Amino acid sequence: MGSAQKPAQTFWGLWNTSFGFFGIQLAFALQNANVSRIFQALGSKVDDLAFLWIAGPVTGLVVQPLIGHWSDRTWGRFGRRRPYFVAGAVLAALALLGLPNTPLLLVAALFLWVLDASLNVAMEPFRAFVGDMTPPHQRAQGFALQTWFIGAGAVLGSLAPAAFKAMGIANTAPEGVIPPSVRYSFYLGALAMVAAVAWTALRVKEYSPAEMAAFADEPEHSASHEPLVYPARGALWMLGGALLLGLVLALGLDKQLLVLGGGLVAFGLLQVVVRARASTGALAHVVSDLAQMPRAMRQLALAQFFTWVALFILWIYTTPVVTREVFHATDTSGAAYNAGADWVGVMFAFYNGVAALAAFALPVLARRIGNVRTHMVGLGAGALAFLLLLVIRDAQWLLLPMALVGVAWASILGMPYVILTRVLPARKFGIYIGLFNLFIVIPQLIVATAMGGVMRSFFPDQPKWTMLVAALVMAGAVIAMARVQEQD
What are phi and psi of 79, to 5 degrees? Predict the structure, then answer.
């Protein structure tokens, strides 16, 4: 047992620890602002956009908890978290190079899957990395600086196509071809991804397992010897999934819901197999830790679920909403459509810029009203933003809701993790942050499988109404946060 106190980081220590997120978020912003544009350019219909994003969340359901579990238990020549975010950066860079250079929609969807999975591999250990390298009293500052890098990377990623257009590089192309300004932006993203993550990997020395055990006042490797819990509700999950599959087939519901039903069956089957075999492998540990989530984490998870449903609607449907409703364009090869798509990049850059500034204001507000209430304020700003996106038809005025989205985004990136790391054992930061991120991935899966059917059934060729759905679910996130009991 040990009782050493983890030393506080200097400003430059915090800077180096978080700098890799600049490249990760630049790549993430390029994905969010341009992938729907690429899919439409390659022939996808608006109603099918959500389904084409589905491979990433399905992979994330598996990748994030496993990467968290393994990174908690990894220690070697290259450290604990670093091998994972370096590998993720290299794979993501390769996907960024391939995505805008394929003429085939199916291949583009495959590259999106690789990109999304790779970003999951890189991003999850970075969240735990801040917890590893900072004492509890400094984590709000650490996550704030990480949010600043996320905002800065996202600004550059979102503005890149418009910036290349301003340099004289074409932002239009024949049907089935990705504009050069978009391709060059993805090349920039690949370079930034590798360079930024390499900076953190080379500049930060991780604490050894013995040092981490001393800081946490826990026996070294104690997580490896804890008794496992085997949930007994696997059969119920399988039954629920089977019922959904049956309803889809019997009532002729949207076939994309088969993916969701199959996922429920698979999750239930995993629990049944793990329990029947009394397994002790990585999947058994993931299932056990999921069953033992701290109460505050469960409360946060519901708010996180609603929040990310709204965010994925924003990222998938803002381009068709703005190009159709504000720029009055549906021809993806036309100048008006591409001008609208470029403006969406500007909008996304603007909200990320606001988030970068708000990141340092939110901890100040949190000291006055608490972390939970501060996050409720941020989510409330997001709900109002979606209502404004539903009604505003002037391109310049769209920056107003984007400013509100920026406040919400800053809070989403920081406050839940500040609250969460107060209740988690340090030896399990990786696995529990990986499990917490399931409530980012599951909403993406639901939006990807269900939103296209909702659009076709209730508002065909009217993507603007997705913003009303987003406003309602974000309001649900505010209500869910009111139930979270903050730990001092």
Answer: 105, -160
